[in-house]
Design goal:
The protein has 10 helices and no strands. It is mostly helical. The longest helix is centred in the middle third of the chain and has 26 residues, at 111-136.
């Protein structure tokens, strides 16, 4: 409930508060901020669920459960994959709940757009869960995990084009957003949402490039999470 409610509150409060003053360049005429913010809120729901799912690694280590799993005759690549798929399933389910809100903000859905959005959400969930695992496997306390989350994961989301578009920002922020892999995941969500009603979406990456970068993000984060698990000793 927390992973769903918190992004929803963000969406309603920030979307309602900034709706009247939202006039950025690179956005189709007539787009409200609540509608623009919608793909970003879906991404935030996926991010929060990935965080909540992977923080259990720290708790399992402290309680001794993880040590028992690590001595089992299975590869850590398989162990990390199982953890990632579990978190991905939760994130995809909770992110999919936000699709029911699309007609409310004026985003018409078709079977094609729904399936394409779910595919992008699946890839984003997998990549974000692996990113959370990379951090959780290195942490010995939940306090440290939350500190890293606030220091890294939330800024990564803010600089993904979810909160404001790339156009019109200072040059350093623009390059940070362009180098942020999550920017391409949010861009893929935006383009897939409008499959059945194409609109002119400027200043965001094309769908093909966005899907390629998102797929690469999934592979790199999984390899990084598995390598971190191999380098972590069996006991804390």
């Amino acid at each position: 409930m927390s992973a769903v409610t918190q992004p929803l509150i963000f969406w309603l409060l920030l979307g309602g508060g900034l709706n009247a003053s939202f006039k950025p360049s690179g956005v189709p005429e007539g787009t409200s901020y609540i509608e623009y913010f919608y793909p970003g809120i879906i991404t935030l729901a996926l991010l929060f669920t990935a965080i909540f799912a992977t923080i259990s690694i720290v708790q399992d280590r402290r309680e001794g459960f993880l040590q028992g799993v690590l001595v089992a005759p299975i590869s850590r690549w398989v162990l990390v994959l199982g953890q990632a798929l579990g978190g991905t399933t939760l994130a995809l389910f909770q992110g999919a709940l936000f699709l029911f809100l699309a007609p409310i903000v004026g985003v018409p859905l078709s079977p094609l757009s729904v399936f394409s959005v779910l595919g992008v959400m699946l890839a984003l969930s997998f990549g974000l869960t692996n990113l959370g695992l990379m951090i959780a496997w290195r942490m010995d306390s939940t306090q440290g995990f939350h500190a890293i989350m606030n220091l890294i994961l939330i800024p990564v989301w803010l600089l993904s084009g979810a909160f404001f578009p790339v156009s019109g920002v200072p040059i350093l922020l623009e390059w940070a957003m362009k180098l942020n892999p999550l920017t391409y995941g949010v861009a893929a969500l935006r383009r897939c949402l409008y499959f059945n009603a194409p609109v002119t979406v400027e200043e965001i990456p094309q769908l093909t490039l966005s899907l390629l970068v998102t797929g690469l993000f999934c592979v790199v984060t999984y390899l990084g999470a598995a390598r971190t698990a191999y380098r972590r000793p069996n006991v804390a």
